[in-house]
Automatic annotation (TrEMBL):
It comes from SAR86 cluster bacterium SAR86B. InterPro entries: DNA-binding_RecF, P-loop_NTPase, RecF/RecN/SMC_N, RecF_2. This is DNA replication and repair protein RecF. The gene is recF. Pfam families: SMC_N. The keyword Chloroplast does not apply. Residues 5-348 form the RecF/RecN/SMC N-terminal domain. It is found in: Cytoplasm. Its main location: cytoplasm. Keywords: ATP-binding, Cytoplasm, DNA damage, DNA repair, DNA replication, DNA-binding, Nucleotide-binding, SOS response.
């Protein structure tokens, strides 16, 4: 759900600001410390109940204030989301004045934040890539969410039994663990097959305008997290290994997406710029797949884009923006959106962040 108007009170460096956003592309620029990240953080907080910058929710209130308020209004549905923090109280999330959970907020108004880890996701850990994948499926599919929550719960139970070396208790959890694990894996496979196909279509389209030859040589493979066919069989076969290791050693919690350049991991071959390019094209392919498969359109948030992207990658990013129909919010220190670019994008809004300081 895009934000049409954002109100922030006592949040980070802002006492009181009100910003009318475009439902299309929004660009925030301003010098270091102006408050760009804080605005993007407020928008993300109003769509997830979480800060992408800090785990200390108290640090978000302005200076010595003990409370803050963020209000996001969507003009198409007329709905208002408020995220507020009062002294000594937990974060409160309300949709149209009714309390909702973080998960329900995520489902109502999903957003995808791209940060510097995302730009180098080929270099990150399998856990990071798995989390990226889980996040998008989690907000898109109810059945995925249910199986994922079940799987995590059962995995904890089985691992607790393995820690106490209780083989019969551990095996009591195996069948349910495996059946939920198979559901998660099938959803991941179905989704990734389409992401990969969208990725190749996109590369063909972009290669008419840009030089992206190295990326065309990348093969993408999904590693489901175990070697054999059925998960239950694998778990049963590995029971002794798991008891020794005191943990479930194989399963969807070990899955990964592999990017290969002629059989070598892409991170060993691609330049930093090419990795960033790969990441933004991959992010867009996922975004398109969420729309194709689930009819959902998460808002895209990209902070400090120019320090991450060189001019070639930025040109590709602009070509991708032309294809995006959802709300996009991005920031940069300099005003990189020329009037020529502005003319190209209907409904693009540009903000100089200094103007919101009160
Ligand atoms: N809780 C807070 N209270 C007051 N100022 C804050 C708080 N948190 C961050 N700031 C300040 O807000 C300013 C804007 O930060 P930020 O949004 O990260 O700027 P930008 O992204 O434009 O470089 C910085 O000067 C930062 O020190
Ligand atoms: Mg910043």
């Amino acid at each position: 759900m895009p934000t049409s108007n954002l109100k922030i009170v006592n949040f980070r460096c802002f006492s009181n600001a009100s910003i009318n956003l475009s439902e299309g592309i929004n660009f925030f620029y301003g010098k270091n410390g102006a408050g760009k990240t804080s605005i993007l953080e407020a928008i993300h907080l109003a769509s997830s109940g979480k800060s992408f910058k800090s785990s200390n929710i108290n640090s978000l209130s302005k200076d010595d204030k003990k409370s803050f308020l963020i209000e996001s209004y969507n003009s198409s549905s007329g709905s208002i989301t408020t995220v507020s923090k009062n002294e000594g109280k937990a974060l409160s999330i309300k949709l149209n004045n009714k309390k909702i959970t973080k998960i329900n907020l995520l489902i109502e108004s999903p957003s995808i934040i791209t940060d510097n880890h995302t730009y180098s996701f080929t270099n990150e850990t399998p856990a990071f890539r798995r989390k990226m994948l889980d996040k998008v499926l989690f907000v898109s599919s109810l059945s995925y969410r249910e199986s994922w929550i079940q799987y995590q719960r059962l995995l904890k139970q089985r691992n607790a039994a393995l820690r106490t070396q209780d083989a019969s208790l551990a095996s009591a959890w195996s069948a349910k663990l495996a059946s939920n694990g198979e559901i998660i894996t099938k959803s991941r496979k179905d989704f990734l097959n389409l992401v990969i196909s969208n990725f190749h279509t996109l590369l063909d389209y972009l290669s008419k305008k840009h030089s992206i030859n190295q990326l065309k040589k990348i093969d993408i493979a999904f590693l489901k997290g175990w070697d054999g066919e059925g998960l239950l069989e694998e778990i049963n076969n590995r029971e002794n290994i798991d008891i020794k290791a005191k943990t479930t050693t194989k399963g969807p919690h070990k899955a990964d997406i592999q990017f290969l350049y002629k059989n070598t991991e892409a991170k060993h071959i691609l330049s930093r710029g090419e990795q960033k390019l790969l990441s933004i094209i991959w992010t867009y392919s996922q975004h398109k797949t969420i729309k194709d498969m689930f009819n959902k359109e998460p808002v895209l948030i990209l902070d400090d884009i120019k320090s991450e992207l060189d001019s070639h990658t930025f040109e590709v990013f602009l070509s991708l923006l032309e294809l995006i129909e959802t709300q996009v919010i991005f920031s940069c220190i300099e005003d990189i959106i020329s009037s020529k670019i502005e003319d190209k994008f209907k409904g693009l809004k540009k903000f100089h962040v200094e103007q919101f300081k009160t």
